[in-house]
């Protein structure tokens, strides 16, 4: 029986939703499974054990039928209802859901009208102009489908940092629990905090390397063993095809292997050059003296010792991209990077008022449980009709609701303050979705581009600058609109946007939804040098969305940001003054 986790339950319920939509099932039935997935995702206890013990009674949102199905899945590893549904469709049909802009309704039409059951079949049908004649499609839709297919092919074999973080932690903890492992870590681009990775690189220190590589290949997530030797093993984990590599070394070799396999390649080239200047050769196993040179092999017990031997302070993994970190280290000018524990609150969060999964109070209490002092609510504005955007009247009602909840928290001595805000659409001409009078009633405003995204660079840049010049705009949301591995950034001149933000005092958010990571970390050093502040915002659409903050800290550190650069590191009294100003 495969290991059943919370994610297993959620994945099965969400796939059932897609299958029912393909069948054209009753929307109320579909909604029941959507709600069930959210209940499982947000349940605070051990939902898997409860399901296994058939102890789900009384959990709001899980009816008798759904309880029975979850019990079957958790206790046997299978759900007959799900298997029977799935058997009605080709496996490759589900790949179509990964394409930007294709939902169940369109996929159903493609499948029933043209028999399209895979991405290659869809691409061929589009190129043969068989899709554009279908009702609800047309030439522009076909162009967008082909662009989405090209994007998928372009990004094939890459994974978002946040999408693999949970699996990475599970595998790492399992390695750490092995009695023959003394040290273990993840290396590679994942450790450096890159927003996407091709694979995961694990490293262990052990006296029994062959035992560990064999152990690694027995993990329940393994779908294929690529190789297994005495010191190395490679597997494919999960059906998504993520390659995971393990290196097993001695304790003496461990710091050298950790530094080497963390990379980046360009960073390591510079370090090896510095080592040669000292008469030493540096590789993944240690320092050795170059023949004919007079030198001493330094004693090294951790990564810090490698850098010390080369006349440098420790350079944090996130900075190791050969983008000036070596020079800064030489001058003693490395930044004191921001840390997760520095965050005091966050902005840009959604509730059930627009397209979120949790109520205002549920989001507030979850933020309090995360140790935050304040939380900004920024539901969508009215032009984002696809996200149930708020009208002026609904937004004013929410402002009143937030004030009432703040009073309640104060009376109950709950140490959390709510700020009322809105994620206001930047319209096509750069004007805002709400007027200045309403914006003035808010504590803050996040201005974001949602539609249209196809303007040229000059037009888009002018559009956003006009929005930033509005004195009621506190911060710019997801500044390039990218969706990692799905949608490229819209064309925009970020140099001009940063300069404008510096002049107007507008914050540029670091949207740390793991599908966005926007603004990209490569721009933050320039922004900070211009005096532009950021807010690390999770774009949370559920209570679980607050976990995105950890990814945001990674990307902020990668952008050389310090606590002083991040406004939501300010304590409550200071952030109140900041927003009023």
Q: What characteristics describe this protein?
A:
Beta Polymerase, domain 3, five-stranded mixed sheet, 23 helices, Beta Polymerase, domain 2, DNA polymerase, domain 1, five-stranded parallel sheet, alpha/beta
Short description:
By secondary structure, this protein is of the alpha/beta class. It contains 23 helices and 17 strands.
Describe what this molecule looks like in 3D.
- The chain is α/β, with parallel strands linked by helices and 581 residues long.
- It folds into four domains: 6-154, DNA polymerase, domain 1 (Orthogonal Bundle); 159-251, Beta Polymerase, domain 2 (2-Layer Sandwich); 261-330, DNA polymerase, thumb domain (Beta Polymerase, domain 3), CATH 3.30.210; 340-580, TIM Barrel.
- It is built from 23 helices and 17 strands.
- The chain has helices at 6-23, 27-42, 47-52, 64-76, 80-86, 104-114, 119-127, 139-154, 161-177, 188-191, 209-216, 254-262, 265-277, 303-309, 325-330, 360-369, 392-411, 436-439, 457-468, 494-504, 524-529, 548-558, 572-580; strands at residues 159-160, 181-186, 196-197, 199-206, 222-228, 232-237, 242-249, 280-283, 286-289, 345-346, 374-377, 417-420, 423-425, 446-448, 475-476, 507-511, 534-537.
- The strands form five sheets. Strands 2-4-7-6-5 form a five-stranded mixed β-sheet, with helices on both faces. A five-stranded parallel β-sheet has the order 13-14-15-16-17, with helices on one face.
- Helix 1 (6-23) packs antiparallel against helix 2, helix 7 (119-127) packs across helix 8 (139-154) and helix 19 (457-468) runs parallel beside helix 20.
- It is globular and about 80 Å long.
- The protein starts with 5 loop residues before the first helix and ends with a helix.
């Amino acid at each position: 029986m495969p290991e059943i986790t919370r994610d297993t339950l959620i994945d099965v319920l969400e796939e059932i939703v897609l299958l029912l939509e393909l069948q054209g099932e009753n929307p109320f039935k579909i909604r029941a499974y959507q709600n069930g997935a959210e209940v499982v995702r947000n349940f605070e206890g051990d939902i898997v054990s409860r399901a296994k013990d058939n102890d789900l009674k009384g959990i709001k949102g899980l009816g008798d039928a759904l309880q029975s199905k979850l019990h079957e899945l958790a206790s046997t590893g299978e759900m007959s209802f799900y298997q029977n549904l799935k058997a009605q469709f080709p496996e490759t049909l589900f790949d179509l859901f990964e394409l930007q802009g294709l939902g169940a309704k369109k996929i159903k039409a493609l499948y029933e009208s043209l028999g399209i059951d895979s991405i290659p079949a869809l691409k061929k049908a589009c190129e043969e102009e068989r899709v554009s004649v279908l009702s609800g499609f047309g030439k522009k839709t076909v162009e967008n489908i082909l662009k989405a297919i090209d994007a998928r092919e372009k990004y094939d074999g890459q994974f978002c940092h946040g999408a693999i973080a949970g699996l990475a932690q599970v595998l790492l903890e399992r390695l750490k629990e092995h009695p023959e492992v003394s040290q273990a870590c993840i290396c590679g681009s994942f450790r450096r905090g890159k927003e996407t990775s091709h694979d995961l690189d694990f490293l262990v220190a052990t006296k029994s390397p062959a035992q560990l590589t064999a152990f690694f290949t027995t993990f329940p997530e393994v779908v294929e063993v690529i190789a297994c030797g005495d010191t190395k093993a490679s597997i494919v984990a999960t059906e998504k095809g993520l390659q995971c590599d393990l290196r097993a070394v001695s304790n003496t070799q461990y710091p050298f292997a950790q530094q080497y396999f963390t990379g980046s390649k360009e960073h390591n080239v510079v370090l090896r050059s510095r080592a040669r200047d000292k008469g030493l050769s540096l590789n993944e196993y240690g320092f050795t003296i170059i023949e004919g040179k007079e030198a001493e092999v330094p004693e090294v017990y951790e990564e810090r010792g490698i850098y010390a031997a080369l006349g440098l302070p420790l350079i944090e993994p996130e900075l190791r991209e050969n983008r000036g970190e070596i020079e800064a280290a030489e001058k003693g000018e490395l930044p004191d990077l921001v840390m997760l524990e520095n965050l005091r609150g966050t902005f840009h969060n959604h509730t059930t008022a627009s397209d979120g999964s949790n109520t205002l109070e549920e989001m507030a209490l979850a933020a309090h449980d995360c140790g935050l002092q304040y939380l900004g609510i920024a539901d969508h504005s009215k032009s984002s009709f696809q996200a149930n955007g708020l009208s002026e009247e609904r937004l004013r009602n929410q402002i009143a609701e937030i004030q009432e909840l703040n009073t309640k928290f104060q009376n109950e001595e709950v140490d959390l303050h709510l700020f009322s805000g809105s994620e206001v659409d930047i319209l096509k001409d750069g004007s805002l979705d709400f007027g200045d009078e309403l914006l003035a009633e808010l504590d803050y405003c996040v201005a974001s581009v949602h539609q249209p995204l196809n303007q040229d660079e000059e037009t888009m840049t002018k559009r956003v600058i006009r929005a930033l010049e509005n004195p009621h705009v506190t911060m710019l949301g997801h500044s390039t609109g990218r969706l990692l591995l799905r949608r490229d950034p819209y064309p925009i001149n970020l140099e001009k946007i940063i300069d404008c933000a510096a002049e107007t005092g507008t914050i540029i958010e670091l949207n740390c939804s793991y599908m966005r990571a926007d603004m990209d970390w490569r721009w933050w050093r320039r922004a900070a040098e211009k005096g532009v502040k950021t807010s690390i915002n999770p774009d949370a659409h559920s209570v679980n969305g607050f976990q995105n903050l950890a990814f945001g800290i990674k990307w902020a550190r990668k952008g050389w940001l310090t606590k002083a650069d991040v406004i939501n590191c300010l304590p409550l009294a200071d952030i109140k003054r900041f927003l009023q100003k």
